[in-house]
Amino acid sequence: MDEMYIDFYNKLLGTYDDQFSVKGISGERVAERLSILAHIGLTEDNGSRRPGFSVLEREAKDRVIEWMYEAGLTVSEDGAGNVFGRLEGKSSDKAVIMSGSHLDTVPNGGHFDGTIGVLSALEVAQAWKETGYTPEKSYEVAIFTDEEGSRFNGGLTGSEAMVGDTDMEKTLLRKDYDDRLFEEVIQDVGLSVRGYGEAGRDLDEIETFVEVHIEQGKKLEKAGLPCGIVTGIAGPYWLKVTFEGLAGHAGNTPMDDRKDALVAAGEFIQKISTLPRKINDTAVATVGNIQVKPNGTNVIPGEVILFVDIRDIQFDSRTELVEKIIATGKKIQKRTGVNFIHQNVHDVAPVPIAEEYQEKLAQSMNRLGIKPSYLSSGAGHDAMIIGRHIPSAMLFVKSKEGISHNPKEWSDLSDCVQTIHVLKDYIERLQVV
């Protein structure tokens, strides 16, 4: 047996409290499956590399499909490569409960992001088989294609296809990191443009969706809690900002006679870093991409282009933050004479989680002796796309040091399994008609 597999498996079980392997849920089975998937697309740094629409993502899906059959599920796949394992309920005419996530990764990511959501959903079905439980409503375990978007620099592709949000005209123009068009790439894994365009599903068939995901932050770790309830998923709004000043000689231009675009941009960056906390605790703003022109050591910067990533879980408060940021730029322009130009280049609506579903998750946590904790998601997830159309909920699993998209990404098995118990209890409570 592979050494990495053994090391990862033993590390998972090394701190596991087997008191949580009850009611048909097996921590050892979860550890084994996490370890098997971790080995698919393993990098030299012991990370994961399974790009969307790759043969490695396909291999991971095929392994999970085998486990779906073991759990007694019937399996189907749509034209976007999304996989659904279905357990027929007693009342098969009722809308289904769906849970799942994705198996693709960033280029050198961790072994929990996305994967734990798929395996958690599957473990619920496996536990029901072990205990002989049949739900009233049908249940589906979902694997969504290309959530991370590392291949085409734009993710959530599979869930968008399922809900019918794909802009096929733009999608067909996308090129991947090898400069290959979308149509050519998806053929590698047996998909076609026609099938992809027909992947949309009748959403009336789905009552609700719930996704388990690692937190990708430190709040649960600081609180000493295994899992938490997501209150909303922040939608990103990107501003492209240009400061137009006047380039000049660094030695011959007096300090009081300059239109330095970089000085104006620096003031702008510093000031907007203070604005989110004036809105609420969930709003954030980040400048992570900046270009200086002409970018010479002895030249006063004449132009600076930067991008501001603005997020919040509520649309109104995010809009307020955007307006404050733009107003800040205009004030700097008026005072310095450096032109401030702004343009929206990306806008994804936030998705708040309905209080009804938060409360049901809290009830399940209380039943299991876990203190309910509430936190927002600053990152996008399949639940964000699905949540625009179908009532959705999310559970976060505690992340060690908040590390994510990194080979050091880690969630203790005990925390993962406790989260699965919450998911199972929650889904069972949704069976009450």
Automatic annotation (TrEMBL):
Cofactor: Zn(2+); Mn(2+)
Sites where the protein binds Zn(2+) 2: D113, E148, H405
Family: Belongs to the peptidase M20 family.
Entry's transmembrane regions: none
Source species, domain of life: Bacteria
Any coiled-coil regions, as ranges: none
Record PANTHER family: ALLANTOATE DEIMINASE-RELATED (PTHR32494)
Peptidase M20 dimerisation domain segment(s): 235-328
Binding site for Zn(2+) 1: H102, D113, H213
NCBIfam families recorded: hydantase, PRK09290.1-5
This protein's name: N-carbamoyl-L-amino acid hydrolase
Keyword Metal-binding: yes
EC id: 3.5.1.87
Alphabetical keyword list: Hydrolase, Manganese, Metal-binding, Zinc
Subunit relationships: Homodimer.
Cofactor binding annotation: Binds 2 Zn(2+) ions per subunit.
GO molecular function, one term: hydrolase activity, acting on carbon-nitrogen (but not peptide) bonds, in linear amidines
Manganese recorded as keyword: yes
